[in-house]
Write a structure and sequence with these properties.
- The protein is an alpha/beta fold.
- The protein is 23% helix and 27% strand.
- It has ten helices and 18 strands.
- It has helices at 39-45, 63-66, 69-78, 93-103, 160-165, 173-177, 218-221, 241-244, 249-259, 277-283, and strands at 2-7, 21-26, 29-35, 55-57, 85-90, 112-117, 124-127, 131-137, 145-151, 157-158, 182-183, 189-190, 196-197, 204-208, 226-230, 263-267, 290-292, 298-300.
- The strands form four sheets. The protein has a seven-stranded mixed sheet. Strands 7-8-9-14-15-16-17 form a seven-stranded mixed sheet, with helices on one face.
- α9 (249-259) crosses α10.
- The termini are close together.
């Protein structure tokens, strides 16, 4: 998994602080997660091959998470896109986008599919042979979901030296990778575990967009490889969390600790703070492995 942060700040865009948007590259897919204002400029700045994007996941309908979407859709049209584009987001996103396309007489010349969400329990949005994407219901001022990206277990890895030593025909190599025992050239059954290595452990990424402290998500995100959790405020402004339905860095750390995640990535910082290291320091009071999202930063999970 390769995660590229395009923007990680809250509210209004600034010269050096862009609103939320990320690209997750996994198992041949390029997923766009949220699409704040200026996302397509950031895609170009960081040389992301955005023509490969087939699926866009929008957490909620606050502007700093989707105002860049109609511009990206329009740019795809101008570039002559033919591949379909799937948009997953709260009910109302289709109306918000298609009205702008209608008024500008800018209908796409490629298939554009909207998958509108209103469920308050986790929903499977996408699945293929290698991974799945599921919603993570959150607690914000408007209907909001996070997204859980989970790899499926891969094939076993062939131990080529062991297979040769066991005198196994080449034609059986694919079956070996799929976990089968095979018969060698002498007619002897060779157990799969003797000629393979375990596959790499499947990785997972949980994107938890704008939300109040919400421990109800812990069972769903337990043991994920990496958790992105909003950290709009520091504890000095804890009193702002309830009316805005946002979290502090320390609360994000508590969620990470409860869920026993591998790495916690903080983001969605309020513009009132000048030193982002304060967010890391605060979260590390309860959870050690903390990273800070920054525009253009790449995480290899």
């Amino acid at each position: 998994m390769k995660l590229t942060i395009l923007g990680c700040h809250s509210a209004t865009p600034r010269a050096s602080a862009h609103p939320t948007s990320q690209v997750l590259e996994v198992k041949g897919h390029l997923f766009l997660i949220d699409c704040g204002e200026g996302t397509q400029v950031q895609l170009r700045r960081y040389k992301v091959k955005f023509s490969r994007i087939r699926h866009v996941f929008i957490s909620h309908l606050h502007g700093d998470h989707f105002f860049g979407l109609v511009g990206l859709i329009s740019t795809f049209r101008l570039l002559g896109r033919e591949a379909e584009l799937n948009i997953y987001g709260p009910k109302g996103i289709k109306e918000a986008i298609t009205l702008q396309l209608k008024l500008g007489k800018s209908w796409t010349n490629y298939p554009l599919y909207f998958h509108e969400l209103d469920a308050v329990t986790p929903q499977l949005l996408f699945e293929d042979d290698s991974l799945s994407v599921t919603t993570i219901p959150l607690d914000h001022r408007v209907y909001t979901n996070g997204f859980l990206f989970q790899e499926k277990p891969g094939d076993r890895k062939l131990d080529i030296n062991a297979a040769r030593k066991a005198n196994i025909d080449l034609s059986y190599y694919n079956k070996i990778k799929q976990g089968y025992d095979v018969v060698n050239k002498e007619g002897r059954m060779v157990p799969n575990t003797a000629i393979t290595f375990d596959p790499d452990p499947p990785k997972s990424y949980a994107f938890c967009s704008d939300t109040a402290y919400y421990p109800e998500i812990v069972p769903q995100i337990e043991n994920v490889t990496a958790l992105y959790h909003e950290a709009t405020f520091l504890e000095t402004h804890y009193h702002l969390c309830e009316p805005t339905k946002h979290s502090t860095a320390k609360e994000a750390g508590v969620i990470a600790k409860k869920a026993q995640v591998g790495t916690l990535i903080l983001g969605h910082y309020s513009g009132r703070y000048g030193d982002l290291e304060l967010f890391r320091k605060e979260a590390q009071e309860v959870f050690e492995n903390v990273e800070l999202a920054e525009d253009g930063k790449i995480f290899k999970l």
